Amino acid sequence: MPEEGYDYLLVIRGNILSEQTILDLKAKALKPTGKSIYYSWDSFENMRHKGEIGKLFDWRGTFDSVDAKESKLGYELVPLFYSDDFDGAKLQQPTEYKYDYVSVSAFFPFRYRYFKAFKAANPDKKMCLKLYLAPSVYRGKKLKNPKLVKDLDMDIISFEPFKPENIRDMCRNSKAILDLAHEKQQGLTMRTMETLGIKRKLVTNNIYLRDYEFYNDSNDLILTDLAKKADEAERTGDYSAFVLPGSEWLDKPYVENEEVRRKYSIHSWIDKLFEV
User: Fold this and answer.
1) What is the reported pTM?
2) Disulfide engineering: 60 pairs with which of 54, 85, 117, 133, CB 3.0-4.6 Å?
3) Tell me: the pLDDT tens digits for 18-29?
């Protein structure tokens, strides 16, 4: 540590930090003129401190638009970001797309259920729907709830993690990205920001996407009531509610706004946090 202390103290999420730990860090590590910064990379509801930790900092931001609106502590809305690996301005664009829709994420029962529904409803489209299921998680679920992981569709399930560069290339070679967040999630996922960065169309179940300046119904489609639709589809065998748009939407030109897009790069995100 520099003898005079640091210029900045940055805490991200901070769910395991006590109030005293933060006060000690500020007292012992910061210069007298130093700034303390807190960023909530999760919704307050999912954290032990419910966002109250923010009162200990000079500046506080959150990726959750609802938390930013409702907090009395002056949280600023700062969404996540896309990295240079997902900067569409730096990537060679394909002359022919391999997929219509790509979705790559971690296994959760709700995602697997919906993926099977999307697969059944869209046989006419080129779909790449992949879920990583860690072997240890699979064994645990097999013991606790064997029906959940019985007869898994191995076209969807992978027991091998996906390398970041492979995920990027799958997204780059697709016309659109399908992103299914936890149904109570309010903040935008990293995949949403990567989709913006790579200049691809987005289909998501996150209704809060409309809160953001880059939302555009030419580029973005929001799905609602998927649980209810899945119940009905499984009851009747009719999966038409899960049919995704075809060429009439996929092949319409992507509407670009380069000035807005660049505001959500990792570089802009870092600049925003440290401009206090």
Assistant:
1) 0.91
2) 54
3) 999 999 999 999
